[in-house]
């Protein structure tokens, strides 16, 4: 396999520093190197001060470059750090918020939004298997659990930002109501065929689904594993004296024990592991139906 990976971990934020992100990406990079025989120079580790907004963008460009070695192209982008919501900039988000990664220099250089990520992912060949591992929060208000050694990988926006997100969500919903009403009228005038109506309903449901971190339907080989639902927070916790993101910790354990696990079973075991260990976050798996039962990295 033509495996190439980008592993970005950030602990040393000026606001709300974390503890387990560099451990996360270092451990998962080593797993791919040893378990899947990936070449060391094809697994880039970018951490802390080096993980600027421009550096992440440039390295995603490198990640997209084909190896031209005659093997199927497999690409992994693992991000461990803060995540934050920002008011939607182009009216394409049902909840009114763009999901953003927070580079080390985000206060000056800005966030990296899901819309921008979607543009960057378009640089990958359509045949490339792109695996996104996102161990960060999308929103939340708690920065430190007073009862245990857990931090949360989220930056809390100001109230004015939440107000703008709420307004964007309402505007999006009204726009969708208007669009759906018009499409139903057009369909009624054009056809009463039940199969066409069912097809329309399926396309409509798909078009209204929230897409995360730049994953878009046009890239049919993209698989996203994220730490939690959009309204939840992702834990950065102490596991036997070493800090890790809860999602990454259990993901690595599962893959170490069963390298050929299917994506479906991986998602289920990951959810069960977090639940059994009292983590409230629910990891998310977004995977094309054609790949859901295939072995990991195959």
From TrEMBL:
Residues 6-287 form the Peptidase C14 caspase domain. One of its GO terms (molecular function) is cysteine-type endopeptidase activity. GO terms for cellular component: cytoplasm. GO terms for biological process: proteolysis. PANTHER family: METACASPASE-1, METACASPASE-4. This is Peptidase C14 caspase catalytic subunit p20.
């Amino acid at each position: 396999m033509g495996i190439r990976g980008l592993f970005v971990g950030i602990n040393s934020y000026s606001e709300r520093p974390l503890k387990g992100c560099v451990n996360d990406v270092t451990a998962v990079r080593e797993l791919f190197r040893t378990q899947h025989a990936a070449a060391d120079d094809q697994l880039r580790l970018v951490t802390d001060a080096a993980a600027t907004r421009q550096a992440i963008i440039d390295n995603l460009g490198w990640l997209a470059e084909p190896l031209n070695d005659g093997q199927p192209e497999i690409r992994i982008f693992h991000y461990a750090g803060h995540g934050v919501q920002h008011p939607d900039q182009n009216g394409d988000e049902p909840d009114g918020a763009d999901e953003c990664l927070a580079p080390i220099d985000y206060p000056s250089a800005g966030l990296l939004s899901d819309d921008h990520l979607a543009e960057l992912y378009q640089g990958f060949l359509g045949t490339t298997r792109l695996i996104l591992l996102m161990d960060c929060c999308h929103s939340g208000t708690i920065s430190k659990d007073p009862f245990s050694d857990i931090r949360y990988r989220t930056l809390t926006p100001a109230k004015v930002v939440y107000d703008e997100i709420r307004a964007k969500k309402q505007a999006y919903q009204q726009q969708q109501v208007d669009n759906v009403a018009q499409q139903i009228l057009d369909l009624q005038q054009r056809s009463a065929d039940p199969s066409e109506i069912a097809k329309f309903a399926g396309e409509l449901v798909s078009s209204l689904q929230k897409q995360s971190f730049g994953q878009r339907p046009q890239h049919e080989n993209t698989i996203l594993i994220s730490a939690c639902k959009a309204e939840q927070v992702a834990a950065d916790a102490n596991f036997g004296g070493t800090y890790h993101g809860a999602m990454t910790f259990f993901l690595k354990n599962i893959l170490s024990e069963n390298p050929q696990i299917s994506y479906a079973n991986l998602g289920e075991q990951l959810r069960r592991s977090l639940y059994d260990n009292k983590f409230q976050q629910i990891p998310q798996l977004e995977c094309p139906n054609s790949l859901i039962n295939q072995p990991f990295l195959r």
